[in-house]
Amino acid sequence: MATCTTIQQRLLVLVLLLAAPALATIDERPNVIVIVADDLGWNDVGFHGGDIDTPSLDRLAAEGMELNRFYTTPVCSPTRAALMTGRDPIRLGVVYGVIFPWDTNGIHPQEHFLPESFRAAGYQTAMVGKWHLGHAQMTYHPNNRGFEHFYGHLHTEVGFYPPFSNQGGKDFQRNGVSIDDQGYESYLLADEVSRYIRTRDKDKPFFVYMPFIAPHTPLDAPQELQDKYKNINTDLAPSRAKQTDDTRRISKLLMMDSARPMYAAVVDGMDQSIGRVLTTLDEEDITDNTIVLFFSDNGGAAYSVGGADNAPLRGGKGETFEGGIRVVSIIRWPGHIEAGQKMNEIMTAMDVFPTLAEAAVVPALNTRKFDGRSMWPAISRGAVMPREELVYFGSETPIYGHFNLTAFNDEWKLVQEIDQDQLETTVTNYLFRIKDDPNEYNNLAASHPEVVQELARMIHDWRALYPINGTRSQLVAPPGWRAPKDWATYPIPLEDLQAEPAPGMAPDKRIERILDFQHGDRGRLTYDCTPNWWLGGACTTDE
Predict the structure, then answer these.
(1) pLDDT band at 27, cuts 50/70/90?
(2) pTM
(3) Which of 187, 352, 490, 513 is most buried, by CB atoms within 10 Å?
């Protein structure tokens, strides 16, 4: 007769055998790496015919699919907010400007982040690089937004060599602890991602977010790369956008050196770093089971000190012409995405969360409605997914009171430049049939005033969703403000914060709703509120 212990052992073996198929399914889920460049130009990759060496990105394009009409916001923080939440940044209070070092805002803790869903599904999650989504409180910190591991910088513009600082304050950490790793920033990120992949728990899939600082200013690169590009062509085609071309013209008049050679060196260094990560996937024999998504956070910084080239697209970073929002993007998953293809459906940064969740069969745990949609059917099997609803983007960067706005779909695109002076507001409209005129040469505003009027009205209503305390283009700190010596010590710890978000100055919710109604189209006092104009402007929270 079998003993009790023997029976228990046999039952345990039976349970394990029955569970084996489920465990195998879990083990086969794809790893995911999202790589984001900072200010990369449309014409600055080899597979677009650019004159900068990008063999790693060219490899991804050859082995994967180019997302030919991938759109982001015109500036940094809003794109990252859209990526992490799948939501329109207009609702989040991060549209017109980035989160500056002296700002205390971030993304509302009640917003659900992409890595939180992947982590809940059993993924290992890591972020390596630039955050730029809030730093004043630990509620905004990457380690509290779904990332088990964080190595990098809370801010932008920390430089490419130590001491990696912003506003004079050191900004380099690992999970909230300041570090002193030495070397070229792009290479350090590649080393950390490669180390993380090699030392991972091999029984679980991983999600890695790798946002580079490259090729954002202030530009710097190893000497050998500087030497490689010292004679690169600096006579770039005009951007055909006044704000960008004016900066180039002024630089030439002042006889300033072109930023193009150093920019090219920085792009090359970033591409080499991406190559290191791809090699690590090869060496670990997980290339075929890893989704790699690459895109730039906005169009290239084509203004004088930026050095990027977006030709033949019009405009650049900060602007809502195609050069500011249509970006280089590739996705690769061997065996699941046909190699060497190009998808021409419109896809946005807001679509990434739902798309990756569907691809990896990860339940999206957001409670607030996505503004993005899953593009996986178009990517994986070529489904036609027309974009009839409008996509909206805006920016006030860099000039306070100068707004660049757009609304577009597959057929029409309206670009508005709005200048708000003290006594008057000037609106300039550009209307394009964007599918037929992707480089925006033919302004049809005068011949189709009814289309301009309708799209302008919809932009107006979209802007009314913006929280009144959202980001603006405030390029300098408040008078007398001082930065910390070390940004890792700056966020207020969770235990030192109130349990709930601050209620504001309204004495109760009823008064807040009344005040929100009185604000009208100036913006929202109540968070995540859509005014119902047919109800006299009363608002409902979108959940």
Answers:
(1) low
(2) 0.93
(3) 352
Residue 105 scores a pLDDT above 80: yes
Nearest to 409 by CA among 371, 455, 456, 447: 455
- pLDDT of 535 over the 70 cut: no
- In this structure, are residues 483 and 109 in contact, taking their beta carbons and an 8 Å threshold? no
Contact 280, 200 (CB under 8 A): no
The pair of three-digit structure tokens given for residue 418, joined into one six-digit string: 């709005």
Section 324-345 average pLDDT: 97
What CA–CA distance (Å, rounded) separates 270 from 285?
Answer: 23
Phi and psi torsions of 105, nearest 5°: -90, 170
Please say whether the dihedral angle defined by the alpha carbons of residues 44, 45, 49 and 52, taken in this order, is positive or negative. Answer: positive
Residue 484 is which amino acid?
P
- Strands, E, within 52-101: which ranges? 65-71
**What is the rounded distance in angstroms from the CA atom of residue 70 to the CA atom of residue 241?**
21
Residue 2 pLDDT greater than 80, yes or no: no
Over residues 497-516, the mean pLDDT reads: 91
Q: CA dihedral in degrees (541, 375, 315, 292; nearest 10)? A: 110
Each residue of 174-226: pLDDT tens digit?
Answer: 999 999 999 999 999 999 999 999 999 999 999 999 999 999 999 999 999 99
Cβ–Cβ under 8 Å, residues 62 and 321: no
In order of their start, the domains of the chain are 27-381 (3.40.720.10), 506-543 (no CATH)
**Alpha carbons 140 and 110: distance in angstroms, whole number:** 11
Task: Return the HEC string of 477-497.
Answer: CCCCCCCCCEHHHCCECHHHC
CA atoms of 464 and 79, how far apart (whole Å): 19
As a whole number, the mean pLDDT across the chain is 93
Q: What tokens does 172 get?
A: 């380099």
The whole-number pLDDT of residue 517 equals: 87
pLDDT digits (tens, 9 = 90+) for 374-402: 999 999 999 999 998 999 999 999 999 99
Strand, coil or helix: what is 329? strand
Q: What pLDDT, on the 0 to 100 scale, is given for residue 536?
A: 57
Q: Contacts from 174-177 at CB under 8 Å and sequence distance 24+?
A: 174/150, 175/143, 175/149, 175/150, 175/151, 176/138, 176/141, 176/143, 176/150, 176/488, 176/491, 177/488
pLDDT at res. 541: 61
The Cα–Cα gap between 69 and 435 comes to 10
DSSP state of 309: -
Alpha carbons 170 and 153: distance in angstroms, whole number:
9
Which secondary structure element, helix H or strand E, spans residue 248, and what is its range? helix 242-253
Q: Give the Cα separation of 493 and 137 in Å (integer).
A: 7
Tokens of 124: 């290992």
